[in-house]
Structure formats: C-alpha cells, structure tokens
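Consider the following assembly input.
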Amino acid sequence: MKQSITGAEIVFKSLLEQGVEVVFGYPGGAVLPIYDSLFKQNSIRHVLVRQEAGAIHAAEGYARSSGKIGVVLVTSGPGATNVVTGLTDAMMDSVPIVCITGQVPQHLIGSDAFQECDTTGITRPCTKHNYLVKDVNKLSSVFHEAFTIANNGRPGPVLIDIPKDVQFAKGKYTTKDENIISSHRLFEPKIKANENNIEEATKLIANAKKPIFYIGGGCINSGPKASALVTKFIEEIKAPATMTLMGLGVLAASNKYSLGMLGMHGMYEANMAMHDCDVMINIGARFDDRVTGRLDAFSPNSKKIHIDIDASNVNKTIKIDFPIIGDIESVMVQLFNSWNKNQYSSQEKSLEDWWKKINNWKKIECLNYYQGENIIKPQHAIKRLYDLTKNKKTFITTEVGQHQMWAAQYYKFDKPNRWLTSGGLGTMGYGFPAAIGAQIANPDALVIDIAGDASILMNIQEMSTAVQHRLPVKIFILNNEYMGMVRQWQELLHGGRYSESYTDSLPDFVKLAESFRATGLRAKTVEDLDPVIIEMIESDKTVIADIWVDKEENCFPMIQSGSSHNEMLLNKDQKQDHISAEKGKVLV
Amino acid sequence: MNKSVYDSPIRTTDINRHILTILVDNEPGVLARVIGMFSGRGYNIDSLNVAEVSNQHLSRITIVTHGTTEVIDQIQSQLMRIVPVHSVTNLDQEDTAVEAEVALVNMFVNKKNKKQAFQICDLYRARKIENEHNSTIFEIAGTSERIDTFIKDISKVTDIEIVRSGPVAISSVNKNQEA
C-alpha cells in the first residue's frame, strides 16, 4: 500500500522525477500549499522574480540556452494572466515550458472569487495543451504527461492549473513508469520521414543548379546533433545557406557557406539568392511573413522542399513541392543515407556560376555603415561588443526592435542555443528575464542582454532578481531615446510624424543600476565605448551599460512590407515604389 | 483564400463544402479547443454536431465547413495539433460518405391548407410526431439538400417553424472488406 501525500508534495515529487532543478516563480494565495512544500525541501532551487512575466521569460531563456524544460510556478488570477504573454511567446517560438498555476478551491470556481480567473480558458489558444486538475490522484500522471507533451515533437508550453483544495488533498503518487501513458499519437510524433520523399528530395538537390538552404529554429529544437548534421550536409552539397532569426547559430556565421540571416532586415545576398534559387531546402523554418515578404513574389522559380516536424507548417502560406514530415536529426541521417546510396556528389562545376552571382551580391556590402569620430553608431557598438566577447562562452539575448535586428546582423553566432530572442511574438521585455534564465542555466557563461531604452523598461524590475541571485547578467542598452523601430516606420511610412515614439523622462540608467546595488556604466562617445564594454564583461556583478547611440539611425537593409526579396532598400535615400508602399502600409 | 495579409501566390482551388469528422477524448473543454481553433484562425463552421461514442470515453464531432482544398488541409493539420484529438477524417475526400440530418417542423396549418401540407409531408416521408399539445409537428431526416427542398415546398403552403440538427456523416466503406 502506497503512502498518501498531499497534492503540493506530489507537485515536487513529480518535478524531481522529471529532473527539474530550477523553478521560476512568484507566490500568492492560491499556491501557498505548494510554496509550503517548497520550503520543506532543498533539491529544487526557486528563483523569485519580481513580476510573473519575468518568471516565464526567464524560464524561456533557461530552456533555450540549456535544452531543458523551463518550469514556472505562479498563483491564480493576476499571476496566471501575467504569464499569458510569455506562454504565447513560447508557443510562437516553440519553447518547452511547464507552467504551474494555482487556482481557487473547486467549490469557489465559477463564483468570481478573489483572484479567480478562467485560467485554462484564457490560456487555451496560447498553450500546446493545458489541464485543470480536479482529482489529486491524477496529479502526478498529469505532470508526467505535461512534461512529455512540452518536449515532444514541436516543443511548446503546457499549463497545469491546480485548485487549492487539490494541493491540500492527500493522494497517491505514481511514477513516470507506472503511468501507462496511452499510446497517444502526440507522444510518438513521426520522427522518421517517408523514404520516398527523402529519395525525391535528394534527387532534386543533386540536380539543382542554384540551390539554397533556408535554415530555421527547428534545427535548434531538434538538438545539437541536428545542427551538426545540417552543417555537414551543407558542406557536402557546397551550396549557400541562409538562416532565419531563430535559426542563427545552426550553421556557424564564420562558415564559408553561410550567407547570414534572411528576411526583412536580412542580408542582401541572402534575400537575392532566395529569390533567384531553383531549389529551396527549408529545414525547420516556417515561412514567416518577416521572411517571405510579398508572397506572390517569393522565390517564384524554385522547387521547394520543406522539412518540419509540424505538418501544419507545410503549405500554410507557401506551396511546397516536396514536404518531409519528421524530426530534423533523423531526417538529416536519412538524407545522408540516400545521398550516399545513390552516389550523388556536389555539382561543384555548375554551382560555380551560382556562387559567382552570390559573390557579386556580396560586393554591395549591405551592412556597411560610417562611424564618425564622436557619436556612436549602434551598429558599431554591437560590432565592438562582438569583437570583445567572441572568444568567451557568450550568450546573447535581446529585447525587440532596432537593437534586436542590429544584434542579429552584427553579432556573429557560431554555435546553436547561444542566441535567445523573441522572434514570433516580438515581445519587448523578453531579453532581460531571458538573460537571467540563461545565466542560471550557464553560471560560468557571459550572458548579455542587448536592449533598447524602451524595451528594457518593460521588465526593469527584474534587476532586483538578478542582484538577489548574484547573477552577473550584463544589460547593454543602445540608448537612442526612441522606440527606434516605431520611429523608423513612422519616418519611412508615416511622413515623419513621430507619434508617441520619443521616450521622454528616461531614467538615469547608471543611477538606476546603482539603486539596485548593481554597476552602472555609460558610453557617450566612440572613445568611451571599448573601455565600457571591457569593464562590463570583466565585472562579476550585474551591470547596466548605457550606450548613447545615434538617435536617428535606421536599420538597413530592409524589405518594406509589401515588397519582395529582390526589392531591398539599402539606405534612407532609396524609396519603396508607390504601389507597394500603399499596399504595405496596412500590413504589420 | 489564404489567411495571410499578403496576396497569395497559390492559384487556389474552388471553395467546396466539406464534412470533417473528428474523434476526441470526451473531457471538459475539448469542444472549446476545437471551435477555438476555428474562430482563432478565421475558419468557418457551417454546422456542428457533438455526441459521445458509446462508452469509450470518446466523442465524435462532426463539422461542416467550406473552403479551398488548401484551407481544408490546413484545418485538418491544425486540428491534429490539439492533444485530445485522436483523428480527423475529411469524409468528402473519401467520396464514399453517407450523410443525414434531422429537422423538426412545426406547421401552423388550418382547415384550408392542411390536406395539401400533409400530402407534401407524405411525399417527403416526413413523419408526424404525436404530442399532447395538439400541434402539428413533423420530423424529417435525410440529406441537407432534401430538407432544403422540403422546406421550400412546404413553405409555399403553410407557415412553419423549423429546427435543424446539422448533418452527421459516416464513411460507407466496409472496413472489414477493405482489410
């Protein structure tokens, strides 16, 4: 006969069995029993954040930098609604999260009780799956199921809502193995792809004259082996490869086949190559609108192969000729087998013309900028940051906006899982808590949040968390006193009417850092820049580096909304054609 | 129609009516997950039917929708992302489905039109439901088209009030023979 334990104890027993080491959370009335059993154990570390949004973004940063599942623990009502943005973010960017929320006791559900909300109802569209646990005896099996769902197939957030009476109630614990998880199809996602599709794909690749690899975040989710295999395959074919914002680091930026990022603020050569290719091999990307630009002019003359674990990504916006559904790691093995079996080899000769064309596009040097003597160019700040940190184990997180795009363009990533940014949802305020999570997962690493002056204020309260846990996270603010990307769009599309995009009354970031007993640094001119960066990375404390940059610098190159890949603007003086501009205005 | 804000490059196929039959776990919230996916992604539901499948803790949802082949494919794969969904079958694709719907018709007949109305009911094999309120209620089952024409014909004769169930459908392929 098994001993009965309380629901709250079952929570921790389940977390322990699942190998959880850290929980990010914030206590409250409806999770008091869980926090009480947290108090009575010391195997799992709890990181107290200062707002629940910080908890879930920290869990995202933890998960993405370590490949483990991020765990969040918050209370009912406002605790639950504060994590909704983070859940949506994790859903869009496929981050494995298990979020535990407290709920009012069952007899109060539906009575508009204090701090009650319909958590499972609210989070249904922004989780992979969610549970309201009504029976304490089912609690452990729900946990085991939740961890499986969060990490299997295409990862995503799972939420478990536990009424307070269930936390108090006594019940039986069942282990992972005792749980006969029904032979549900989602627990056995299609890992291996159909062999016929693989054969067709390799044949197409072998005969391509102008192939291009289009690499996405799915490669990172599939694990480090997947990235290595993708790199090996690209080197075998000797074809160019471009990466999405989420896919940076899969193929090293220093690899000679890498064309860098593509899309709205991607590299000129990458976008031109996407437009002109004859065979596109999409590995783990999803044809996001930030990547494709105008759909009817997207890579019009290519045959498209799409490798994805989620069948709903195939043919969603772009018609695919050869879909391959499966896990990237095993699909890459299959592709290699088929490639070798058929004795295909790289068409180096015919690829020569293709590379010649690409090298001509490269000559444009789309990332060029002019750094004067005085005011720091934001691009230059990132470039110096990269030069001074590239030899360390560095993780970069970002907020959302111009600084994010400059970071993606000028910081070069050679490894997967080192670049954490909110791609799908575009959540301002993501970067700093994500850096906290990444630092906890990688205590010996240098973790830098490249931020904007507007974004950083969205979760600035987490300074307190970082200092409390002695996390030497660095915040590198490109301060232009504007919501830079909003200002840029207003300049390009709305006649320079800068409606509410100027941030008046910004805090003194140095004093702000000091008020949290962290270090504050400031660079006002180019000559300040290097010393500030060096002092920042050498400090063992939490640091805010306030970098004053050119206020009106725009992020280029750019495909404006409504334009296609071969209509990139390289600088301010170029204008989008009138018809595309009018069409583009209504788009996001 | 493509759901993107951009013009679609895909020469989309014609819009057709489709019957999807979805096998789900019979648990709280499962219907909300399914219809939430439809409303959240901007798809249409023409009719919806839910009933438990006998004692297997499963329910069957029958949804009639319309869209191009691309949209219907996307609906199917989006439905398959929902955890308690076991299977989704597009019955129209199999081309071997039988569908039926039930309608209850309350007819406000008088001495003048009663005979003619009953004749029409006979013709369509609508069955009179006896009840203690002396009202004239008929029940008719069949394909949606058949019910449509019945309504059209009977409306010419008398005022009616009508309640329709929306269709349910089943594949007519004999699974044993197939195997």
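The domain at 16-94 of chain B is CATH 3.30.70.260 (Alpha-Beta Plaits). Ask yourself how this observation constrains the way the partners meet.
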